[in-house]
Amino acid sequence: MQDAADALLALGAEGLQLTPGNAPCEGFLDDLRARGVPVRTHHGFDARALRRPVWSPSAECLVDADSVHPPRDVDPASAHWVRRAKSGDFHALTLETMYPGYALGTGDALTWAMDLGLKLAVDVAHLHIQRESGVLPGHVWRRLQDYPSIHEVHVSANPGDRDAHHPLRPDTFGLEWARARRADGTPLILECYMHRLSDETRRTQVALCRGTT
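== Xylose isomerase-like TIM barrel domain-containing protein ==
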């Protein structure tokens, strides 16, 4: 965790999103806090483990994170999740827009979420998959762009059929809109697989997010 954080901060990152998957590192969070690094926690992040369970079978959220994925359609929580969302149980959570196979994975589901006034973390790469799958109508995307309760924006590229977390290109779907939301103060989070890239390419990715290249 510490090595990954140091490599990203050396790029001039304004903060870090802490996500599941890195091997635990003793004192990791204490070190970031002592250095004054802004952090946002995501989904099943745990500083002491690879990941934590996010949803109980009854759709109770088990993590205290800045944003979480809603459950997959095949998860035990799925049967209860929609009911609890309708009841207002998740209004304190920021829920990420997903792709088919998950809750919030279609345009109809996004319309439903906006009608409920749910807080959203908009992942434009996931929306690209929705669009390429034919389940994100243009009018829903246009409404979502102006939705007032967006608390994060996530960006990466993919070929439209899977969540590949490829590096951004200047023409990546949703990138221009994401930059505009960043300019308005919404946290913009780059989610491409930076560990696979050269240092020069990493810096280009950061510049693309900022609109300086």
